[in-house]
Amino acid sequence: MRIQNRETEYGNMKVAIIGAGLAGLAAGRKLQKNGIDVTVFESSDRVGGRAVTIQRPDSADIVDAGTQYFHSNYVRALSLICETGLSGQLRKVSGKTKFFDERAGGGFFVTGHRIPYMSSGSLTDNLKMAARGLWRMATNPMNPYAVAKGTKIDSILATDRIRDPFEQEYSLRTLAMAGALSEPYHAPISYLHLVRLMRIIVMTDYLVLDGGISSLHERLAKDLDVRLHTPVQKILFANGMPSGISTTTGKTFSCDKVIVATPPGLASSLLPENGWEDERQFLSSISQPPAITVTLFLNSKPDNNVWSYVFRPDRKRLVSFCIEASHKNPAMIPSGLSTLQAWICDPAAERVIDKSDEAIANEVIRELARDFPNLSQQVESTHVQRFTNAIPQCLPGHNQEALRFLEMTDKRAGTAFCGDYFSGGYMESTLWSVDRATKRIMAASDRGPAL
Questions:
Q1: Which end of the chain is more exposed for a tag (fewer CB within 10 A), N or C?
Q2: Could you tell me which residues come within 8 angstroms of residue 277 by beta carbon, excluding any fewer than 6 positions away?
Q3: Residue 99 dihedral angles phi and psi, to the nearest 5°
């Protein structure tokens, strides 16, 4: 009865959604639940975007090769997991992190993420870092997944507020790698985004799904009309309103409204060249550098209770950190064998993105063999996953530019945008933007809600 009433309210409205990552699929699900005719267009051969699950050859082992986990303070994402019947597959990551550091006894130390103690430094170093982190969060309250309104700390470089070398290495760098897949010396994040990352990474538990993160995306796509292998070329307009989309094959699809749920660079290219200059400029200005994961399927057992490894900053290195998938979620690795994933972040990924899979894997194995004895003899097979557009960077001023962009697009009837590039590269950030975009599409006046 509810859907029937919604169908009456929205008539025969047709909405085209461009992109079948989390943003497009969640938007499609929400609109369809409200009786709106939805079609999702995806250029690739699968749904999920950066959520990718791979399998160990000739084995039941599966591994997340892209998006790695949810956070326990996700509200929208955990609600979506519940709605799709996946709550029973959620597990908490409980392992430790090993930092390779020659300044520590034995050349490394092991710590947890909630109250980390970096034993390469003194007690005073650690207490100062903890106190400053707590002070930053206490003096800058915010929803870490939303575009903030009226904040001044967006224009400040994180490195201008973090001057202590110990804190730069163990707070700023660790947060930038985990939350932006970037070394901070190359793409310095804003102070606002640093505080966001503190609230997200340090103050929450990590949650994973037994079927892999992409199992959520597959469940969302199950009841939607998703057109794979259908790259959209342009959004078509008539009298200022969307009238359809055109594909790269020359076909057109008529619709009443459009939700753009693609990476920002592609979103910019979909818009008309005339009349959308400011919107196109914002979208095309967002830096979304590449990242690469190299999964090493080993024939050995992993370190005891260590699920992640971090290496000291070195501009010559390829790998910034590694994840041990068999400790991250043992349910995904029934064999119990080590499955080590090396993350090549920005800017190292840019150096090797055009090399062959074999060349990248071999270079990673040679590099990791310094810290993992006999690694080359333990590798059974490898998998290289490339993300040409990984985490969007939140450089100084990005938050206010995102706010301005959303205010501009609120005045564009029939067109809405969603994605993780507004407020920081997280699934919950994506779903915040989905809520906003779908409310706009469903609004009778087609004017967006206030932030």
A1: N
A2: none
A3: -100, 120
